Hints:
Radius of gyration: 20 Å
Amino acid sequence: MSDKEWAELLKDSPRKAYELLVSSFGSLVYAIAYNKLGGCASKEDIDDCVSDIFVEIFRSADRFEQNSGSMKVFVSTIAKRRAIDAFRRLSKRYSVTDSIDEMSDDTEFSGGNAQVEAEDKILQGQLWDTVRSLGEPDSLIIIYQYYYDMTIAQIAKRLDMTPAAVQKRSSRARDKIRSVLEKE
C-alpha cells in the first residue's frame, strides 16, 4: 500500500486503517520494542509498549499527512521513541545500580550455559562499577550514550556542554574503562 493510500485510508476509515496498520507493521513494531526493552522488561511490558506505540501512531496520524517520509519510517520513529520512553520508565522502577550481590537467588537463566551467563553478569557488574567510578560528567556521558542511546548532540544539550567536549570526554572515558577492565 502506498503512503498516499495510507493517508486516504486514515481519513476515510480510521478503524480499518488501524487494523491494517497493526497487521502490516506489527512485527516491525514488536521487533523495535523488543530490541529496546528485551534486557529489562517482561513479555507483558513489551506487549504493553507495543499497544501504546500503536495508540500513539493512531493519535499522530494527522502528522503523517504532513510528513514527507514513508509510513514505515513514521511508524519506526514513533516505535523507537515510545520504546525508549518505556525503557526509561522501567529502568527507574528497577534501579540499574543494583549490584550482582543484591540479586535474588531465584534469578532464572535463559536456558544457556549457566556458568557463561554468570560470568557475563559478573562482567556487567564490573563494567557498571567502572562506569560509576569515572565520576561526573564522564559517567553520565557514557550512560546517556550507551544506556539511553542518546546522540552526542543530545548529551551536549542535556549537560550544557559543547558536542566536541562531549565527544572528547566520551573517548577518554572509554579508554579509561578499557584499561581498568583489561587490568581486572
